[in-house]
Amino acid sequence: MSSQATYPPPATAYPAEPQGGYMAAPPPAGYPMKDGHEQGQAAPVTTQSKGDGFLKGCCAALCCCCVLDACF
Fold this sequence. Notes:
Layout (H helix, E strand, L loop, with lengths): L52 H19 L1
């Protein structure tokens, strides 16, 4: 009777490296390529003005600080 147990071959932690070397992730959508072609057609982006709420808020805060400074 044989006293040696047979074990399966050890598993590898990472898959084998591809033949061309390392693999790079594709560029983000809409990024210009070397040959001038883009991967996908990106939808046109439109921006809208949100108004002058930030400026009004800053002026209100400044006025509030001045009033509190004058009162106390």
